[in-house]
Design a protein that fits this description.
single chain; 60% helix; elongated
Length: 154
């Protein structure tokens, strides 16, 4: 009976140690969850239709922006690994921005989760700031604007 209780106690301590390590390890820093309709929302706010082409283009640009601005305080060797992991997952264009944020959060660790949240917001804001300016992502010929309403002559 003593052996069984000793084994159970050792297993309980081991399980508790693993749970604490998983909870506080650097891999436990979740990236902010992007809304599934984030690209559609950005397009609508910028005055463009949410066509599949436009959604893919916005997702592509967000992922690239996250990678361009997310390397702060990450060891260069680790950053090269993050970029390689992100490039390997680029086929899922719509899910790619979330994948990039997840990899950045993992590389930065639990202590820098708030910075990843700010990164996501800053990139979205920068993307929207180009709408109507004739510059940036929404200033080029990549997107077709929403048709202007036609008013009947009175």
């Amino acid at each position: 009976m003593g052996t069984v209780l000793g084994t159970v106690a050792v297993l309980a301590v081991f399980a508790l140690t693993v749970a604490v390590a998983l909870r506080h390890g650097p891999w436990a820093a979740p990236a902010p969850r992007l809304s599934p309709d984030l690209a559609t929302t950005i397009l609508t706010r910028a005055g463009f239709p949410a066509t599949p082409h436009n959604v893919h283009a916005v997702c592509e640009h967000l992922g690239v922006m996250f990678l361009e601005q997310g390397r702060d305080d990450v060891d260069p060797a680790r950053w090269a690994q993050v970029v390689a992991e992100c490039e390997a997952a680029r086929d899922d264009v719509v899910g790619w921005p979330q994948h990039v944020l997840d990899r950045i959060a993992s590389a930065r660790g639990a202590a820098d989760g708030a910075a990843v949240v700010r990164l996501a917001r800053r990139c979205q804001d920068a993307l929207l700031a180009t709408a109507g300016t004739g510059r940036g992502v929404f200033g080029g010929s990549l997107f077709e604007p929403l048709p202007r309403p036609v008013h009947a002559a009175v």
